[in-house]
Structures are given as structure tokens and as C-alpha cells.
Amino acid sequence: MSLTIKLNLERDNFSLAIDTTLEAKGFTAIYGPSGAGKTTLLRWLAGLEPETQGQLSFNGTVWQDNDSALPPQQRHIAYVFQEPRLFPHLSVEGNLRYAYQRRFNPEGPSLQDVCDWLEIGKLIKQFPDQLSGGEQQRVAIARALLSSPELILMDEPLASLDGASKQRIIKHLQALQANMATPIIYVSHDFEEVSQLADQLLLIDKGQLIAQGPLLELSHRIDLPLSHEENAASIINATIEQHDRKNHLTELLIDNHLSLWITAIEGREDEPVRIRIPARDVSINLERAEHSSILNILPATITEIEQSDSSARVLIKLAVAHQFILVRLTHKSVTRLELSVGQQVYAQIKTVALLSDQREH
């Protein structure tokens, strides 16, 4: 399955030019700063941007060409906005049944399925004004699923939520991928959010597609703006090795042999996990420190060093087993340690964040 996009949009002081093909499966994130064109692209995919020129096809069906455009209701999509947009005069059940009665495919999930997946069964008789923001958004997502779409579009659905509500919905979205095969295209300007959800990533800046590919690969490319953001981080795949109940820790293995300790999590042995390592929380030592409070000290090889005189900091890419992590050091540290490409070093990792605990890779 694929989504083929050829879009050239010109407006006052803004242009958007995208020419690409996406695999229509899994979770694809469109990421970039505010004003990059992310929402405009998503709205165009939905058929909500009239008077635009371009070509768009989904799984061989032409949605738009130079002569015509399929109306939104005939594209069999669901759209989740930043605001829940629930019908205020209908209960939660009424909102859900409205979508279910108009579903595109009779073999889609049932009302009970989505209530279980998103934990909204207890809300079924309430009305939107009786719900919190996070609860409303979970209902909005459930309503989208009940329409049995072929493609789900989400436009920063967590942007207006508090941290706790956001994390709860992220966990539900992670679990959804195990329960249904409908592809999701997700817009966000929050990389920490994206890194917990996405398989594939489109990086957009100033109306241009600057990179596309697997999230894990793009997260450690030092030639991309992504790696230069303040919260830049590498994404690593690992597996659970064991749980240290006494010390409230869990040991992970990177590529089946490098040990990494994190705060205790639930999960079975050999279960795959995805972790996030912030570049600012990694330091480099030329020798392995024998007397250190840092638990995670990994052998690594320097593969790239950013050459820049315009910043006080230098970005370094390390190979750790068969994966990569980023390190952000000062120019002075790089010079003092005489660091160079190909050098064998030790990466000292202060912070490791779990991103998901049931993701295939």
C-alpha cells in the first residue's frame, strides 16, 4: 500500500512543494517547526484545501489530479483535529454511534472494541461538556476509528493537553498499532511525542521536504536540523534482559550484548523496547571509568564529528554496537580530548527514557 504525493502550492508569502511516496502502513509522522506547512499538507491529503494543484493517489486510487479532486467523504479517511470537535448535543455514545452508522467498512472495529482500547467505557453516558480535555480527545479518536477508515490523519491531537493526559493517550496510540492495521499520518512539532509513536518520519521546513525515512535513522543524522534542536536525542532499539527488583532497575540489551540499565519497567524477558537517549546527557571518556556513579558506560566508536565554528558546542555521532547515539560537547572538550573519527571511546549515559514497551522492530 502506498500514498503518492505531488503537491505545489503557492500562496502569499508561503509555498509548499512535496514530491514523495509513503508506505501506507504503520505510523508516519510529519514533523517540523511551526509554519513549516505540516497542517496544510495534511488538510490537502484530506481534500480540505480547495483550489490547489497536485497529484495524489492512495493504493492506486486517484484522489486528485490536474483535472479533478475526489471530495473528502469519498476518500474513506478519518481526521482527528487538535480540538476534539465532538457534537455537544450528543452523549459520548451518541458521538460514537454517529460515526459507526456511517462507517466505510462493515468489518471495522465495534463500539465495544474502541471503548476497551481507549478506556472510555465509563464515559459512555456523559456529554462532552462533562469531560476533561484528555477524555474528549480519546472520544474523538475512538469516533475516528469507528468510521472504519482506510487512512487516519491526526493534526497535533495532543497539543492542548497537559503532560499526564498526553502520556495516557500516547500509550493508547501505541497499543492501537497492535490492534488494527489502519495507517496513521500524524502531524506534530514535538519530537519527544513523535519519537514515542512514529515508525517513519517526514521532516518539513519552510514548505520543503528535507528528509524522509525510518525514525531511528533520521534521529541520529547530524546533517539534519533535528539533531541540532535543544532536545535532540537518539532512538535505540533494545530488549529486556532481566529485572533487578531489589534496586528497582531493569537491564536492557542493545543488539543482544551491550548492557543498559534503566528505572524498573514492566515486561517479559526478550521483549523489545524503544529508548530515547538525549544528546546533552551523554559524555565521552577515553578510558572506562572504574569508580563512577554512572551505571551506563558503553564502548563506542566515533563515526562523525560536526565541523562548525558558529557554535560553542560540537555534535558527535557514536557507533554503539550496530546502532548510533549522539553526543553534544563543547569545542574545548573535543580539543582537550583530541577526539577524531574512528577513535575508540566510552560513552557515559546519564539519562535513558523508555519510549514504548510493546513495539516490533
TrEMBL record:
The organism's place on the tree of life at top rank = Bacteria
Q: According to its record, what are the GO cellular component terms?
A: membrane
Single GO molecular function: molybdate ion transmembrane transporter activity
Which UniProt keywords are given for this protein, alphabetically ordered?
A: ATP-binding, Cell inner membrane, Cell membrane, Membrane, Molybdenum, Nucleotide-binding, Translocase, Transport
> Which residue range or ranges hold the ABC transporter domain?
9-231
User: What is any Pfam family matched here?
Assistant: ABC_tran
Q: Which InterPro entries does this entry report, sorted A to Z?
A: AAA+_ATPase, ABC_transporter-like_ATP-bd, ABC_transporter-like_CS, Mo/tungstate-bd_C_term_dom, ModC_ABC_ATP-bd, Molybdenum_import_ModC, Mop_domain, P-loop_NTPase
Which segments constitute the Mop domain? 291-358
Kindly give the PANTHER family that the UniProt entry links to this protein.
ABC TRANSPORTER I FAMILY MEMBER 10
Protein name per the record: Molybdenum ABC transporter ATP-binding protein
**Source species, please?**
Oceanicoccus sagamiensis
